[in-house]
Amino acid sequence: MSxxxxxxxxxxxxxxxxxxxxxxNGHPLVYLDNGATTxxxxxxxxxxxxxxxxETANVHRGVHTLxxxxxxxxxxxxxxxxxxxxxxxxxxxxxTSGTTxxxxxxxxxxxxxxxxxxxxxLITEMEHHSNIVPWQMLCEERGCVLKVxxxxxxxxxxxxxxxxxxxxxxxxxxxxxxxxxxxxxNPVEKIIELAHARQVPVLxxxxxxxxxxxxxxxxxxxDFLAFSGHKLFGPTGxxxxxxxxxxxxxMPPYRGGGDMIRSVTFDKTVYNTLPYKFEAGTPNxxxxxGLGRAVQYVQDLGLANxxxxxxxxxxxxxxxxxxxxxxxxxxxxxxxxxxxxxIHEDVHAxxxxxxxxxxxxxxxxxxxxxxxxxDHFGISATSRASFSIYNTRDDVDRFVRAVxxxxxxxx
Length: 411
Description:
Strand content: 15-25%
Number of domains: 2
Oligomer: single chain
Radius of gyration: 22 Å
Helix content: 25-40%
CATH class of the largest domain: Alpha Beta
Strand order of the largest sheet: 4-10-9-8-7-5-6
Number of helices: 14
Structural class: alpha/beta
CATH architecture of the largest domain: 3-Layer(aba) Sandwich
Number of strands: 17
CATH topology of the largest domain: Aspartate Aminotransferase, domain 2
């Protein structure tokens, strides 16, 4: 049976995640901090433990049995990720420590090769800091200019402004696929189409998108795509950069060391082929084996099969939270993922997070590494509930009751 026809069984899914059995302050855990990191299924935990308990060895070049087994599992994860995002070639899958690392790699390596003084990089007002700061650093180093596409008060990008900002000096567009603080799903297909019409490559920050819906880089036709393993039910410290080979082959590496070389003398170093040219040093072997298992878990489940469930949970949570006096939801785009950010007129976000935790409900509070988004709305922080495949309407009821109790305590 294909994943597209698998029945979504919420009880079975919840049983796959041992962390859900934890009690917090005497209450069963309600985990609504999935935008920061997702919980890990037992199969991923087992895969990591198996590497450390039965096949610990470094990868590549080793001729002994454990090294060969570790290499096979490690490179098998790369093959599975290639299939997962439908990349044309295995060499286009580069392992990184996460989305931040992947974006920094592009900023440094693409920037050093293709960006000159007076050129422009185009991003949006809703970017995570990891898709702002690396470009600011590049601008300082190369003398290029950072341009920013605004969004409206619903949290939707102004595409007309985007088109106006695209010009003959634009060297790259780097845009978040799904906003981590607003939940907005950006119209990336249209953004890519408009950018490519001017021969401008596009990088997609897919950190929040990768666990929400299937991604096909060939269909999107993006030039780069970055995501983190820990937001895809995999281990922390793992990530992926997909890049079209035509760009990666032209980009110089920015980290030197072992495994990214073919030969080294004191006179000259010859770099390795893709993808190893960008993978210096001993990698997070167990982490990527775990990520490969997480991708397999998601493929077996079928992300498309989870969409209706999460859409229902989001709609229910939005309706129930909106019934509370003094609540203002931040991010009301027509197209959004299961992220619900909000403020209350009497309770600061940090107090809200602490108080609902007393009821066993885990949410995220703060600026979510999107301070320009907070500035847009004239606020310093929001409370954010982010839902994943294992969350239910019962979780929402617990969450809403905890929010109500927190407000009553302040009154």
